[in-house]
Design brief:
Length: 71
């Protein structure tokens, strides 16, 4: 769900079993979105979950969003 996925309630664990055949499905199992997120909710979620690395895949807007979250 894009950046909203950090604080969404419908998250899934990406285990070897759950991603085994994703290349055969097409589309994205991660979801995507266009803009609009709550930066503080994202930061709170990152801290609450103990996440220490985030990989952002996307274009200019995604990278700008990552910069805001980092700051």
């Amino acid at each position: 769900g894009g950046y909203r996925g950090f604080y969404a309630r419908n998250t899934i664990d990406l285990t070897p079993k759950s991603v085994n055949d994703i290349h055969k499905r097409g589309g994205t199992i991660l979801g995507s979105s266009r803009g609009g997120h709550d930066t503080m909710k994202i930061v709170d979620s990152i801290q609450y979950r103990g996440i220490n690395q985030v990989y952002v895949i996307g274009g200019d807007g995604s990278q700008r969003g990552a910069g805001v979250i980092f700051e």
